[in-house]
Amino acid sequence: MCTAVNYKTDGFYFGRNLDLHYSYDEKVTITPRNFPLKFRSVGELKNHYAIIGMATEMEGYPLYYDATNEKGVSMAGLNFPGNAVFHPFEEGKDNVSPFEFILWILGQCQNMAEVRKLLSKIHLYDEPFSKDVPLAPLHYMIAYKDESLVVESVADGLKIHENPVGVLANNPEFTYHLHRLNDFMQVTGKTPVNLFSEKLPLKPYSLGMGSMGLPGDLSSSSRFVRAAFVKVQDYEPKGEEESVSQFFHILDAVSQPKGCTEVEGGHFEYTIYSSCVNTEKGIYYYKTYDNSSLTAVSLQKENLDSDKLLQYPLRKKLVVEREN
Ligand SMILES: C[C@H](CCC(=O)NCCS(=O)(=O)O)[C@H]1CC[C@H]2[C@@H]3CC[C@@H]4C[C@H](O)CC[C@]4(C)[C@H]3C[C@H](O)[C@]12C
């Protein structure tokens, strides 16, 4: 499972948890402007916006899980198994494979108006990367500043939803998650009052009781509600450090400790990495399951006119600052 978030403070931040029980050797990956991007059906972008994000490289091609371009447009793919349907090639549309989707949008769009324009012509078609790398059943969140969209290719076509919450999790469809928030409208970050009965002298006996009823489990629908709740509270971080810190706390509220989510074969799904991008500055911060120190990679510090892919292996080993 995964959770993605976009977050406005005095800056605009975007990131996600990647929850899985194995890894594809993903690395922080910079695709500079002149790295030729070849698409299966829509030609080639010889130059394009530079992109930073988490990707696995296969046959020289960056397969992004989540990324941000030099203009701040950001995108993440999250599992959507059983609901994601990619359709056969369709004449007259921009036929883009799901594995090309992030590159196609981030390579060309500098704001949400441009994203919407490209989306109106897009057909996510069923072209796998290769025999060994089949289609991944994903849905997507696309954000620019505080605007956010969810894109879901389902049995009856491509759905584009406005995302007023700025959160995405996994199954089921986005509209379900959005509607389900109504069930939690009584949950509050403030001190609760007794609405139960005037006849009973009920009172809060501990801090934090306003959030009673917030689902604490790791299911996709509960993670959506919990991330949304933590995100929309009244606290407003100021500056880069407070913003990045609070962003990771939102993701931590929905992260998966090993042992809690069993998958087949006695394995456990866990939060492999959590990321937070300052989308205006192009700084990709991340931490991994075992290394909770933050590592940062800056897009602007590289030669963005290069034509070579740049990869930073993840720092996965725990770093401890020892006092004595
Ligand atoms: C599995 C991950 C989602 C995490 C998640 O949500 N886990 C939940 C389980 S649950 O079902 O919700 O319980 C997703 C997110 C991004 C994906 C890669 C995207 C590029 C590339 C596309 C190719 O076509 C196939 C290989 C490829 C490397 C993909 C592998 C895998 O699919 C990745 C890592």
Automatic annotation (TrEMBL):
Record flagged with keyword Hydrolase: yes
Question: Which GO molecular function, any one, fits this protein according to its record?
Answer: choloylglycine hydrolase activity
**Family indicated by similarity:** Belongs to the peptidase C59 family.
**Enzyme nomenclature, EC number:** 3.5.1.24
Domain (Choloylglycine hydrolase/NAAA C-terminal) spans 2-310
Q: What is this protein called?
A: choloylglycine hydrolase
Give, as one word, the top-level EC class.
Answer: hydrolase
Q: What organism does this protein naturally occur in?
A: Proteiniclasticum ruminis
Quote the InterPro entries the UniProt record gives: CBAH, CBAH/NAAA_C, Ntn_hydrolases_N, Peptidase_C59
Q: One GO BP annotation here?
A: lipid metabolic process
Catalytic activity, per the record?
cholate + taurine = taurocholate + H2O; taurodeoxycholate + H2O = deoxycholate + taurine
Domain of life, per UniProt, equals: Bacteria
Q: What are the record keywords, sorted?
A: Hydrolase, Lipid metabolism
Q: Tell me the route in metabolism or biology where this protein functions.
A: Lipid metabolism; bile acid biosynthesis
